[in-house]
Amino acid sequence: MAALESASTCPFGKPNNAIEQPVESKSEATGGHGRAAQPTQEEQLTPPTSESNAKGRSRAQGIALVAAVSGAGFLNVRPPRLELALLHLLTLFWLAKQTFSSQAAVIILPTISTDLEIPSGRQQLVVSVYGLTFGCFLLVWGRLADLFSKRAIFVAGSVWVTLSTTVTPFAANEETPTTIRLRDQLDLPGAFLSTFGLGILLFVLSTGNEVGWATPWVPPLIVVGVALVTVFIFWERRLEAGNHCPPLLRVSLFQSREFSISMAVMCMLFASFNGFLVYATMNMVMEKGVHDVPFDELPDRRRVWNRPVHSKEEGLGRLVLLTPDVVASAASCIKTGRRIALNWDLNKLEVANFNRQPTQHHIVSLLDGSAFDDVYIFNPQQSSQWDGLRHFSAPFPTSEDPTRRLYYGGVTASEITTRSNTRIGMQYWAREGICGRGVLLDYAAFAERHGIEYSAFSDHAVPLSVLLEIAHDENVTLKRGDIVFIRIGVTREWDEKMTAADKQAYATTRSPQHAGVEGTEEMLRWIWNEGIAAVASDALSFEVYPPKKSYPRGTGKDVEGYFLHEYLLAGWGMPIGELFDLEGLSRICAEERRWEFFVASAPLNMPGGVSSPPNCVAIL
């Protein structure tokens, strides 16, 4: 389709009233190829009328031609002024169509990449191949227009584009294009050499930076691509100089300095502009729009990886929802100025599970006791922390590697353990901080009011229906970009109810249990559709742990269980806060009768960091 579109971009062919002048010599007329050639635009002369009238007729006939294709042949009897206006509209239409055609592949690029598992580093290749097809077939169909008729090719292209655009969405099977064989008139070897030569070079240039230029197959492909393009140039020069079929490209044109400079400038212009269009369109379609797509309409709910590799946006993940407008609006939550830190003591948990080492704090004397320094050795996962995007992976198996697991954006474990690679590290969150409107859903207080007894160190699960009831009781309506805190009661139970023996038993058990929210599809749908930027809790794992395979419902049918960490962290790039100290915040919110506040968090600025203490403050 792109090929015929290229032939249909110029609707103005040879005027019907043009008078062809007799050819003086066969050699001159054929350009040295021994057959009669079609007169060029310069060789077509109009009758002895004014130049403006001739141009007007030519334009009017061009308009009439397009109108006839559209079924509106009456246009060529309209007044000249109307015809000129229609000409301008027609020109704008074709420019708009060309822009749409070139960007159509970009619009559906996210879906193509998801279905074909194309990594973000190779997405440019899809658009480049589309453009390469357009460019290579431009030579072929341009030559066909010379052989037959520019007007005929334009009409054929217009009809074909109209039909294919209408029919293609309903096609059930892949179509096989029919090859046009004009052995004596069409330079098939040139078409092959140019297409494959440029295609190979395009592939290597698009993927070399990702796979590494020293990869064994990269240098040979570069040599093959350059060789094919070189052979194409020599082949076209041979056709141009000999008595063979006309070349696709007249290489002699580049002997003109002005022409060569113009082509070089145009090449650089379109190369940079098309690259800009790809990322600009992707930004409009995905960066700004993906979070507006309802959960049930997401192409892949497990993988919302839509940002350029190593970019700031990729590093922020779901925090891109915290726009300046969202943060500025959240400042209106500050009414009384009361503030409370949400960080638990750094030396808690004194004994932690999963063999996590306890905090070590050393005080070092300087200058014979005139000054002191601190030395901290701690694991952020032991106490209050943000789980970063490098913390947890999700399964993305392939036939070659059924056990494959990836982190957000497709990051591999080897990338994380390579210290020089800081992709999706904590530094992206630290540089701007995590600031916005915080909302507390106080489940622990709700449970006390309703006589619900449970231990925070059990597999007690909080369903979405209860969270919605709490929000209703607190008169809270969630907004896009909110940071939602859920109080389970872990820190209070650890500090006030558990003995040293209880804590040691928890730390050494091989099957720990943590209370938290249900891991269900409806919970995921709610988090996504509400536009929540981050979630946090005083629970040890936010969701109930171990993850359950199903959850009972009153209807007698169980609902499937999901591991929220795999979706929120590895799939969506959403921060998960754990072991936040929400006891003081709960008391202040109850006193104020207000469960919304401004929250500011400054994670540690550690390039490549996996997690961080939150350094978080709530201001009411």
UniProtKB/TrEMBL annotation:
Q: InterPro entries in the record, alphabetically?
A: KFase/CYL, KFase_sf, MFS, MFS_trans_sf
> Which key words tag this protein in UniProt?
Membrane, Transmembrane, Transmembrane helix
Region: Disordered; residue ranges are 1-56
Q: Which domain of life is it from?
A: Eukaryota
Localization recorded for this chain is: Membrane
Q: Which GO terms describe its biological process?
A: L-tryptophan catabolic process to kynurenine
Membrane topology (UniProt):
Multi-pass membrane protein
Transmembrane ranges? 124-141, 153-172, 188-205, 217-235, 259-279
Which protein is depicted? Cornichon
To which species is this protein native? Cordyceps militaris (Caterpillar fungus)
